[in-house]
Design brief:
Elements lengths: L1 H9 L4 H8 L6 H15 L6 H9 L4 H24 L15
Helix pairs in contact: 3-4, 3-5
Length: 101
């Protein structure tokens, strides 16, 4: 979360958009669809429905972008596991995690 927040700020996202993104939402419809799809991937361990794939596609994501979203989710899970298992130091400004509702 710390790295993603720092990178988001560097990419031009404002604090409100970053907080919305952390909650799985966005002021941009296409980004919001990607976030909802990413959340579904995590929540369902990849077992998304055809309707969820269709929703992200209808929001304007190509098949290649959908594969990229899946890949990013998988890589983030991997890097989180590595970080937790190794206790690696976070070298970005720390951001505290909030529990999902």
């Amino acid at each position: 979360m710390s790295a993603h927040t720092a990178i988001g700020r560097k990419s031009g996202l404002d604090n409100n958009e970053i907080m919305e993104n952390r909650l799985g939402r966005s002021g941009d419809a296409k980004a919001g669809a990607a976030l909802a799809f990413a959340r579904a991937l995590v929540d369902d361990l990849g077992g998304v429905t055809p309707a969820q794939v269709d929703a992200v596609r209808r929001a304007g994501h190509s098949d290649a972008e959908i594969v990229e979203i899946i890949t990013h989710v998988a890589l983030n899970i991997l890097t989180n596991m590595i970080g937790k298992a190794t206790g690696i130091d976070i070298d970005f400004p720390r951001v505290e995690l909030r529990q999902a509702a």
